[in-house]
From TrEMBL:
The keyword Zinc applies. The chain crosses the membrane at residues 12-33. Gene3D superfamilies: Zinc/RING finger domain, C3HC4 (zinc finger). It holds the Pfam family zf-RING_2. Keywords: Membrane, Metal-binding, Transmembrane, Transmembrane helix, Zinc, Zinc-finger. InterPro entries: Znf_RING (IPR001841), Znf_RING/FYVE/PHD (IPR013083). It comes from the Eukaryota. SMART domains: RING. This is RING-type domain-containing protein. Residues 76-118 form the RING-type domain. PANTHER family: RING-TYPE DOMAIN-CONTAINING PROTEIN (PTHR47662). Signal peptide: none annotated. It comes from Hevea brasiliensis.
Amino acid sequence: MATLSEFLSRLYTVATVFFCLLTLEAVILFRLVTGSITNSDNRGVISTSQYLQLIEEKNPAILYTEKLRQQSVIECAVCLSEFLEGESVRKLKCKHTFHKDCLDKWLQQYLATCPLCRTKVLPDEIVADYHQLQDQIDHYDGSDEEMIFLLSALHGNGLQRIF
Ligand SMILES: [Zn+2]
Ligand SMILES: [Zn+2]
């Protein structure tokens, strides 16, 4: 009988540990799902692809041509290299022109303004919404790491108790 009750108690421990793990994993899954629903609902947050799409709508990428060179559009002020014919560039409303990739990176990492004259490229509220989402993602990363730490700690303790 002693072995049976010992077996049952071990079974109970295993069941408890698995239940805890399941609950925590369900919480993580729920947060991921609700996070993605918020994004697609577009309620005050903008994803990176939506943000880039807005930049494209306002300042469509064009190919660099000899005609632009004649208009004294020579060099990208972000990477400081000369434009080559056929490269994708964006000409902003302020008439400053940059490589498409250079400008997009700039607008994502820094302020949504022209790197040269600081003219706004996108309205403030769109930039605020975009950075709000980035902050949320940073926050998610932190807490999920905590969750994973918690999961592994729990798992480790459970194993020590069982074996
Ligand atoms: Zn460039
Ligand atoms: Zn400018």
